[in-house]
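User: What would this chain look like folded?
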Amino acid sequence: MTPSSDAQYNFHMPPNTVNRKARRITVALDSLGCKLNQAEIQSLARQFEAAGYRLVEPDAKADIFILNTCTVTHVADRKSRHLLRMARRRNPATRLIAIGCYAHRAPEELSQVEGVELVLGNDKKMNLLDLLTDFDNQHQANPISSNSHVNRRTRAFLKIQDGCKNFCAYCIVPYVRSREYCVPVDNVLAQIKSLIADGYREVVLTGTEIGGYQSDDVNLGGLIKRILAETPLPRLRLSSLQPHHFSPELIKLWQDARLCPHFHISLQSGSDSILKRMKRRYSIKDYRKAVELIRSVVPDAAITTDVIVGFPGETDAEFQETLKFCREMQFARIHVFPFSPRPGTAAATMPEQISDAVKKERSNDMLALSKESAKAFQQRFIGKIIDVLWEQKSRDVWSGLTGNYIKVYAKSSKTLTNLILPVKLLKLYRDGVWGDIL
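Assistant: Here's the prediction, encoded as structure tokens.
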């Protein structure tokens, strides 16, 4: 299946549009799904701010609400529709705009959500500002320039690559992100320098498959070397990689302390027979070899993963293989997904579809292991001193992340946002660790 990529252009004049000229138009941007979606929504936010729009938080009453949708599961589809309806309830006059993967796959479904006036697929969404500007110019509703802005995050997600042609049996992504593209090295470096100037302390390189990055003669390892050598970025983190992307030459780069010791390596199943039916490009032996390589060079690394339970034909024995392998790998975190048939994918029509009841039972078993594994990983660092990038405050408690992705909480009367400070980790707390700022 090749989903329609045609955008739905059905603008409706919102009430009092012309009167908005007397004030700045407010824009709320939100995102579901992967880090690539987050990178894109942050890029759009910078575009809108530069154009003079006033950015507000996603749960604020905004003149325009933009959602970068996800369609990796039917639950993601439902959440996308829910967030759009919630924005409409907050402000019935808001202009709802849906972009991204769900918008690319099924624009007609999203256009049926009350209040949605624009649906843009992945091929057009980054041109959103131009489309809105053309429309607003026709109705005298231009934004008014100002230097004020919504509070920035301390971590920026930066897209360096897009597109996938692997066509794993369960995955909709190649249908909605089919165009493969790598951002040129000089462009990546310029964006990172701009983010540093804006105050960001950490950049996360993201894409559909960043391990396949290749721009001219520069691969992912070469790009990392250039970033570390040519920018003063305090922290660099990578998003998801595949087992075959790892090599001794790549892992040696983590001897530089600015590279976050955190590796997200999608597993999907711990059974070779399931991996073969999923059309994954590695075996359990390959996966184990990649993990052993990482830990031989970066012993304190957090290794996180994704697991799909209830893939068509998955037997109890195959699921137990996955549980056993995940326990052996000692993951820092396991993201668990019950199999969700996506229209047009090979797995959607496979025989022996697993019942929802069995999927739920297996999900609960895997989630229990995920919780156990996360606590065991965090416990290893109790009593140690680790740098934390502090991000936000809730009531009187601050939270932030270590380089190896442990969430840390602490009390402080000072403003910590965007500071990297040494913290002694004291005890397990909530979904992370309680610490004492030194």
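Confidence is low (pLDDT under 50) at residues 1-22, 137-151. If you want, I can go into more detail on any region.
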